[in-house]
Design goal:
By secondary structure, the chain is of the alpha/beta class. It has helices at 26-29, 103-112, 130-144, 160-172, 192-205, 216-228, 235-240, 243-259, 272-283, 294-298, 309-313, 327-337, 352-355, 375-384, 391-405, 490-502, 534-537; strands at 30-34, 37-39, 44-46, 48-52, 55-60, 70-73, 78-81, 83-88, 93-94, 97-98, 115-122, 148-154, 177-181, 208-212, 264-269, 288-293, 342-344, 423-433, 452-462, 465-469, 472-473. The strands form four sheets. The protein has an eight-stranded parallel β-sheet with strand order 8-11-12-13-14-15-16-17. Helix 5 links the parallel strand 13 and strand 14 (208-212). The longest helix has 17 residues, at 243-259. It is globular and about 115 Å long. The termini are far apart.
Length: 588
Amino acid sequence: MAHLLPQSTHVREGMPVKKVPIHLQSSQNRILIKGGRVVNDDQTFHADVYIEDGTIKQVGENLITPGGARVIDAKDKLVLPGGIDPHTHMQFAFMGARSVDDFYTGTRAAVAGGTTMIIDQVMPNRLDSLLDSFEKWKSRADESCCCDYGLHVAVTYWTDRVAADLETLAKEKGVNGFKVFMAYKDLYQLSDGELCKVVAKAKSLGALVQVHAENGELIAESEAALLSKGVTGPEGHALARPEELEAEATNRAITIAHTLNAPVYIEPVMSKSAAEVIANARRKGRVVFGEANVAALGTDGSHYWNKCWTHAAGHVTSPPLRADGTTGEFLLDLLANGDLSVTGSEHCTYNPDQKALGKDDFTQIPHGVNGVEDRMMIIWEKAVHTGRMDAGQFVAVTSTNAAKIFNIYPRKGRVATGSDADIVIWDPKAVKTISSQSHFQQGAFNIFEGTTCHGAPWMTIAGGRVVYENGEAHVGQGSGRFVSMPCFADHVYAKIRARDAVRETCPVEREPYDGPIAAYSMDENGYMKAPLSPSQAGFHHRPPTRSGGRNQQDSSFSLGGDQFDDKPTRSSSRILNPPGGRSSGPLW
């Protein structure tokens, strides 16, 4: 039996706090963080940080600041850029259920975990207007977000109207990322031809295509085969989606993008095989970015075989977690050496009763797990605490790299003068055990249940306001802002522009061909007839040799079956004097 308590025991009580006008927040307008160690992706140093009206105004020692500021003592703590989670699904209706975290509870959980900006995925159904879907998502987020947010838009079908919508979204709406699926057949999946069109259009706009890479055709076949054999439980989800299908689709997506000299972003990366494809491609100079999913870093797919159906189903996400317990360590090593670029949560939480929609058929279990609150603690525990990364690399994969890829750096992803005051003060000595009974996320299940983390957020500042301290969130509903993300990020397109400039295709200048042209004709069904026979067209065009013999460069073969030396011959010939002389007796 599941060990879960009723949902109400897992959810923090209290109504959302409405947005407070900034001029009424005088105590938070000015903040001075003293005595901490500033950590950016490329440097670490002791400094004080002065914040005013949502912006970092000064970074240094012995700062001269106006009076009235709240002073925060950050001695023995790290002052980091707030996390950027580039992949979330808040209040997402999918597979007959709606994810339980909306933009309010989801972003409240985010800031409790040190994340100060999310990028959510707009998911239009087939034939829905991309622009209408964008406005619907943005309206929900504007009303509820507790931290800044951006939006990417999925392309789930292709028409001329979709192409026009992409142009409007990129040029007028602040969207520079478009999501495509190579899986979810008959729902979101695009064909390779449609994928090519999306990649080409995105490139022309300076946007980035983000690919969910799985072979949807083979998944559909595998699912049907497993169900026919009586496999209905959550283990079927993993069996139908082996990592080879993730790796194959990843390679295909990279190949398509490289052929068009376009960048590509693979999300989420869940397996060793797919990660190796990305690493090998980057070493060959391909412009590809990989987003490792925190679920794959912090747990594994062995849970799909758990005897408790609720526990097993609670881990169902796509691509699935891998049964190989060393997958997380492998992905962390690639993050540390730069072969993978960023980390995301793909936060999309469903409660056990919603997962139970697939109790008799694993293909009906809603896909999605938690992670927006846990992401930074899990990565610190698995990477920094174990010595795989230093604090600067941690900042890179949790914040800075995403800011560079999506063209909001150094406004986001850096503690520096002029940057947004999105900061997490990190306590590397803190010890915290993750539990569904104490987390801020709404889900009644946590895939990282019982994980002890050495290092955790001590305080989170979003938009210049203290939104998390002493284990409590102090957020205003709707206080987050939409962040417009410009196209043509240098981090993404610098190499692409240079390659386009030197790879201009020019025709070869040559003399026109004036030789013979083969004679073919078509039959009444439109099929090509056999070429003319030798007696009609002749075999050879080269002149004979000087001795009068046939030029051996010519072929004596005809597609019609004729041979050059076909002619009537006698049935036999008697050889009177064979070479070497006539034999006078038996050979032996």
